[in-house]
Amino acid sequence: MKAFLTIGLLIISNTFMVMAWYGHLKFSEWKWFSKLGLISIILVSWGIALFEYAFQVPANKIGFRENGGPFSLIQLKVIQEVITLVVFAVFTLIVFKTETFRLNHIISFIFLILAVYFMFKK
User: Fold this and answer.
1) Taking burial as the number of CB atoms within 10 A of a residue's CB, which of 6, 56, 99, 121 is the most buried?
2) What is the pTM of this model?
3) Which residue ranges make up each domain of the chain?
4) pLDDT tens profile 71-112
5) What's the Cα-to-Cα distance from 13 to each of 17, 57, 78, 105, 117, rounded to whole Å?
6) What do you get for the CA distance between the two ends of the chain, in Å?
7) Burial grade of 66 (CB within 10 A; 0-12, 13-18, 19 or more)
8) CA gap 60, 75 in Å, rounded
């Protein structure tokens, strides 16, 4: 149960992270947003990133083995990185219609999945 809760929180967290880091590139198409200066865009992104931390910190606390969770610190980090890339890929395909995935991207994802496999292999 803690494993699923941890992964769910990480997915939510990374969704906010991708929106904070890359969403502003698309949001600039909105009339009111396009008039904002860099400092304002940074503050909006920080506001979005606050929600990232609201889910990331509990995910790590719940999932960490020394707190009764199922994952080591290294395993948590690898899981988080893979989730980050998957969320980013989905976000990119949905929000940025000009981006496409090629064979090299698919091969990269396969290697990431293998990285997770080897991370959990004893």
Assistant:
1) 6
2) 0.84
3) 2-120
4) 999 899 989 988 998 898 889 888 888 878 889 988 988 888
5) 6, 9, 15, 23, 23
6) 22
7) exposed
8) 11
